[in-house]
């Protein structure tokens, strides 16, 4: 299964990737990541910060999907920074 995921993934290992973060997480094998940094965008943050750059609101369902995938790919001794 891990080899299949590697072949199917359009993301490169040990490189900076751009794209859908959820798609990237789904392409990773179980228990394969030591560290995850997750910064979900809440509408309230956008209002408080009043920044000129765009912050895309993430619905609760999408954040939940990220959390499920993070839990799946994170090694037992790994860290998730929010």
Give structural attributes:
41% helix; 82 residues; alpha+beta; two-stranded parallel ribbon
Largest sheet: number of strands, sense, barrel closure: 2 strands, parallel
What structural class do you assign from the helix and strand content?
alpha+beta
Strand content: 15-25%
**Could you state the order of secondary-structure elements as H and E?**
HHEHHE
**Distance between the amino and carboxyl termini:** 29 Å
Q: Let me know the average pLDDT.
A: 80
Q: Helical amount among residues, as a percent range?
A: 40-55%
Number of domains: 1
Please, how many helices? 4
Total strands: the figure is 2
* Uncertain runs: none
Shape: globular
Query: Strand order within the widest sheet?
Result: 1-2
Radius of gyration: 14 Å
Counting copies of identical and different chains, the oligomeric state is single chain
Characterization of this structure:
- The protein is of the alpha+beta class and 82 residues long.
- The protein has one domain (2-81).
- It is built from 4 helices and 2 strands; from the N terminus they run ααβααβ.
- The protein has helices at 2-8, 21-26, 43-49, 60-73; strands at residues 33-37, 74-81.
- It has a two-stranded parallel sheet.
- The radius of gyration is 14 Å and the shape is globular.
Provide the fold topology:
Blueprint: H1 2-8, H2 21-26, E1 33-37, H3 43-49, H4 60-73, E2 74-81
Offer a concise description of the structure.
It is built from 4 helices and 2 strands. The chain has 82 residues and is an alpha+beta fold.
């Amino acid at each position: 299964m891990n080899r299949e995921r590697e072949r199917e993934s359009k993301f490169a290992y040990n490189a900076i990737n751009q794209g859908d973060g959820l798609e990237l997480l789904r392409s990773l094998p179980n228990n394969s990541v030591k560290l995850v940094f997750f910064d979900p965008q809440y509408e309230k943050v956008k209002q408080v910060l009043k920044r000129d750059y765009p912050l895309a609101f993430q619905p609760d369902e999408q954040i939940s999907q990220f959390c499920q995938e993070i839990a799946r790919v994170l090694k037992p001794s790994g860290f998730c920074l929010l």
